[in-house]
Amino acid sequence: MKEKKKIYSSFHELSPREYMYFPKATLEVGKPGKFSRKEIFHILTAMGILTIAFSFTISRNNIIMLGFNYLEDFPKAIFFSFLGIVTAFFVHEISHKFTAQKLGLWSEFRMYPLGLLLSLLLAISTGFVFAAPGAVMFRGESRTFETGRIAAAGSSANILVAGVAFYLSQNVFFETDIGKMFAFICLVNVLLATFNLLPFNPLDGSKVIRWNGIVWSILFVLSIVLLFLLIQRGLPKI
Asked: What is the pTM of this model?
C-alpha cells in the first residue's frame, strides 16, 4: 500500500522530530472543533510564549516611537500582544485545523519548541520577532484542491478579522482607545495574512496557487489593500 503523504499547512517545515508529538495510538479523525489534550497543551504553550515575545517587541518599539518607559509600558504591551495572538495566530491555525477536519483528515497543532525559543530570545535581545511557533499538521489522502483550501483558510480568516477590525476602528470607535485596539488587531492580522500568502514554499501561498491562482490573487490583493488603507490612515500607536 502506498504510504500516505505527510503535509504541513503552516509556514515552516518541521524536522523528523515531529513524530514524537503524534499520539501513540491510531490517528483518529475528529469532528471540526475536537481537540486532544496534547494539542491543547501545545496551543496554550505556543500562545503563552508568543504573547511574552511580542510584548517585548511592542514595548521596545514604543520606547523608540513614543518615548514610553519600558517597564511601565510592559503590562499594556502584554494585553495588546495577547489580543494579537488570539485574533491572528490562534484564528489562523484553528481555521487550518477545522477545514482539514471538515474534509475528513486528521489534524492537530504541534508547537515547534526551537522556533518558539528563538522567537523569545530574539524578541528579548533585539525587540524583533520572527515567529516560528509550530504548525497545524494533517494526515490523510488529501488532493490538491483540499490542500489548497486548507492553506487558504488561515489567511482568509485573518483577512476577515482584519476587515471587521478596520471598519470598527475607522467608523465606530474612531480616535478612541478602543479604536486603537481594533486598529492593532487589524495590523497583526493583515501582516500575518500577507506574509503567509507569499507564493514561496513552504508558505501557504504556494499551496493556494497550485490549487487556484484566482483565489490566491483575490486573497493577496485584499490583504495588500487592507494594509495600504491602514498605513494611509496611520498605523496604530498604543
From this structure: 0.79
